[in-house]
Amino acid sequence: MSVSGQGAGEERVNPGASADATAEAVNFLRGKPSLIILSLEEMAAMAKKLRRHVIKMTGKAGSGHPGGSLSAAEIVTALYFKYLRHNPANPRWQDRDRFVLSKGHAAPLLYAALAESGYFDVDELATLRALGSRLQGHCDMTTILGVEMSSGSLGQGLSFGIGMALAGRLDSRDYRVYVLLGDGECDEGQVWEAAMASAHFKLDNLVAIVDHNKQQIDGWNREVMNLEPLAEKWKAFGWHTIEVDGHDPSQLITAFDEAKQAKGRPTAVIAHTIKGKGVSFMENNPEFHGRAPTAAEVERALEELK
Ligand SMILES: Cc1ncc(C[n+]2csc(CCOP(=O)(O)OP(=O)(O)O)c2C)c(N)n1
Ligand SMILES: [Mg+2]
């Protein structure tokens, strides 16, 4: 397909898609606002909006991963609605900043951010995990414009980000690459191979953000696999490392600014968060790692997220 505008190529999003479906996608994108940039106050409201989407989507689907989607709401909001240089009207713009959702089970959150940014219609969010929907439980980069990597098998996103960062350097492009990892995901050896390689290649156009909610699928990290001292580990691997409150957009923005100033090495942002953030009965409750809220729970959650 071709998408009009700066950097547009002759790339097809989904080689298997019919010409009609492709034309429909392109028509939808034309005429959309190119970029939404929010104030700090508006970002807090957007994070809440994304949380509401996550609750409704997983509730309707009857499955999915609400906990790790809710914990990363401000991180994804700060990127999509303030920090990333991107253009929903031209998703394949070659100079766009790249966002890789390495913790691919948080797909509902990414879908919500993409829809609210204008990549596709918000109504489509209701099709999460439905048969035939583009919005499967884990993202597919071949079907959704705006998804940079098909993820879900944990541990791979940082390696993928290295490829993007090296390609940017080779092509003399100044885009930046942001990879969001889970803290449980950091149990994967591949993450540390990638951490070593990023520092070796002095990738100062690469930022890893760790959603440090202290829990993974089976409960607390400290009981499953102790990660601490996590920030010290990234430092020891040669990364400029910053710790922030991952629910404070201003701290996230300041960290991304600081990352731009760090020359000759990649930056790790350790974002301290709460799994299930925003919904009292989901917060720090490992049950909601991979369980959808019931209809009654959806109602209670939405009441809290008003
Ligand atoms: C390679 C691989 N092993 C196991 C899983 C199953 N799995 C899905 S989510 C998850 C826990 C991830 O924990 P964390 O990275 O901390 O995610 P968060 O707390 O942000 O939800 C696991 C083990 C997977 N998706 N990929
Ligand atoms: Mg976690």
Q: Outline the low-pLDDT stretches.
A: 1-17
Percent range of helical residues: 25-40%
Strand order of the largest sheet: 1-2-3-7-6
Structural class: alpha/beta
- Sheet-strand content, in percent, reads 5-15%
Mean of residue pLDDT values: 92
Quick one: how many beta strands? Answer: 7
The small-molecule ligands in this entry are:
thiamine diphosphate, magnesium ion
**Sheet bearing the most strands, described?**
5 strands, parallel
Q: Which word captures the global form?
A: globular
Straight-line distance between termini: 40 Å
C-alpha-based Rg, rounded:
18 Å
Count of DSSP helices?
11
Pattern of helices and strands? HHHHEHHEHEEEHHEHEH
Layout of helices and strands:
Elements: H1 19-29, H2 40-61, H3 66-71, H4 73-83, E1 98-101, H5 107-117, H6 157-170, E2 177-182, H7 189-200, E3 206-212, E4 215-216, E5 219-220, H8 221-224, H9 230-236, E6 240-245, H10 249-261, E7 267-272, H11 295-304
Parallel strand pairs: 1-2, 2-3, 3-7, 6-7
Antiparallel strand pairs: 4-5
Structure description:
By secondary structure, the protein is of the alpha/beta class. Helices cover 40% and strands 11% of the residues. The chain has eleven helices and seven strands. The strands form two sheets. It has a five-stranded parallel sheet, with helices on both faces. Strands 4-5 form a two-stranded antiparallel sheet. Strand 2 (177-182), helix 7 and strand 3 (206-212) form a beta-alpha-beta unit. Helix 2 (40-61) packs antiparallel against helix 11 (295-304) and helix 6 runs parallel beside helix 7 (189-200). The longest helix has 22 residues, at 40-61. The model is unreliable at 1-17 (pLDDT under 50). Bound molecules: thiamine diphosphate (TPP) and magnesium ion (MG). Thiamine diphosphate (TPP) binds at residues 67-68, 71, 103, 105, 152-155, 182-185, 211, 213, 215-217, 275, 289.
